[in-house]
Amino acid sequence: MEWTDEAIARLRDLWSQGLSTAEIGRQLSITKNAVVGKAHRLGLPSRPSPIRSRKAKEGETVEPTPRRKPAPRKTAKEVKAAADQTSVVSKKPSSGAEKPKEALAAASVEEKKKEVEATSHIVKKVVEAAPQTVKAKVVEKAVEAPAKVVPLTPPKPAQTSRPLPPPRFLGSIDRSTRRGPACCWPIGDPGTPGFHFCGATPLSGKPYCAEHAAIAYVKIRDRRD
DNA sequence: CCCTGATTCGC
DNA sequence: GCGAATCAGG
């Protein structure tokens, strides 16, 4: 990474805006390690760290989180040697070709963009992640940018007088292998035998899977007649 | 497991 | 100086 004046300025700016190191990294197309490393070197103010957040009790000398052993780190040579060996000996059968990091990063960025376009959830997410001091700022920024979104109510189950049967999730079929949350998009008519909820793995932070989230969250301008 | 930021240390 | 590897907390 060539730390040009501009790159450094950008880093400083984003850093001061309270964006996460990973987010800054994405915007600069570098890793969060590079970001935090450079920030550290630049003497930028530390962010509230998850780990060191040990209460600085008054008088109590908080041990700087006694980090453990320096951890033996592989040398580049060792890494290369290992790589050579594995590539010759036991090439992974079908793990698929690993995407280059750039591709991954790009994909990640694309994903993010889509998300921002489609929903405002990301805004909330970002805001939540941001330190208090910058929340307002972030909101202000974000509000004008992404399209407004309205969560449409999913098909309203016709309410019956008798209690509904216990909802069945398709996901419960393989509950043994996947215990996570389940998409709660209703399928079929409540009260009828076939009624169940989707049960697929929901998008992070949403009650619906990708397929149904796409239906549930519709851009306002797409609803206009 | 995902995320986060901080630190270490081979390069 | 750089940043991947690693750590550790949520």
From TrEMBL:
It holds the Pfam family GcrA. Gene3D superfamilies: Homeodomain-like (1.10.10.60). It comes from the Bacteria. Residues 84-93 have a biased composition (Polar residues). Residues 39-103 are annotated as: Disordered. This is GcrA cell cycle regulator.
